[in-house]
Amino acid sequence: MNKTSKGELALRYTLLVLVFLLSIGPFLWQLSTSLKAPTEDIYTYPPHFLPSDPTLENYAKVGEVIPVWRYALNSLMVGIASVVSNCLFAGMGGYALARFRFRGRRLATLLFLSTLLIPGEAVLISVFLTVRGMGLADTLAGVWLPGCAGAINVLLLRNAFLALPREVEEAGVMDGANAWQRFRRIALPSVKGTLAVVALLSFMAAWDDFLWPLIILSDPDKYTLTVGLQYLSGTFSNDQRLVAAGTMISVLPLLALFFSLQKYFFRGLGEGALKG
Question: What is d(CA 7, CA 24) in angstroms, rounded to the nearest whole number?
Answer without folding.
Answer: 26
